[in-house]
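Retry 2 of 3 after timeout on previous attempt. Resubmitting structure tokens to design endpoint.
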């Protein structure tokens, strides 16, 4: 019979148990990248709301920081030389002029309607890039062809 060789194999990696440092380094690097991505997403996704009176009072501190301005439309929008809509919103007895570039929701946008404009201060004027308009319950009555009644009945149950 042949003799069985029971001598241990030579492991030249130099680590106890023959394990490599490569796997923990890869996992650590991936966790670091994932943590950085989550941090960036959470810090860049914050957009604060300010009422018109608060935003005007804090204009200097806000600078060119992006935030959402909440107020009620008090004038009809007019187009400036560059085609942007310019109108005034009010809250708490304070007015602010808004210059909106981009599409406005024209079928819901009117005097007396609360809006939220996302943008930043450009001097004395609020530069808006997005408008959110609150609509009344009469929207369904005025636009019955835009509502899926089957879905509405399912939700009511």
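Retry 2 succeeded. Sequence:
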């Amino acid at each position: 019979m042949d003799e069985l060789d029971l001598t241990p194999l030579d492991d030249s990696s130099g680590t106890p148990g023959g394990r490599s440092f490569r796997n923990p380094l890869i996992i650590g690097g991936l966790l670091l990248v994932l943590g950085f991505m989550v941090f960036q997403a959470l810090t860049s996704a914050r957009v604060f709301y300010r009422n018109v009176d608060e935003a005007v009072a804090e204009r200097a501190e806000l600078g060119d920081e992006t935030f959402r301005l909440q107020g009620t439309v008090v004038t009809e929008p007019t187009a400036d030389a560059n085609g942007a809509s310019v109108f005034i919103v009010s809250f708490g007895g304070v007015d602010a002029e808004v210059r909106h570039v981009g599409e406005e929701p024209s079928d819901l946008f009117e005097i007396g309607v609360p809006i939220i404009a996302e943008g930043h201060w450009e001097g004395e004027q609020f530069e808006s890039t997005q408008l959110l308009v609150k609509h009344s319950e009469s929207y369904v009555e005025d636009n019955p062809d835009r509502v899926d009644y089957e879905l509405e009945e399912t939700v009511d149950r």
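Attempt log closed. The first strand starts at residue 49 and ends at 51.
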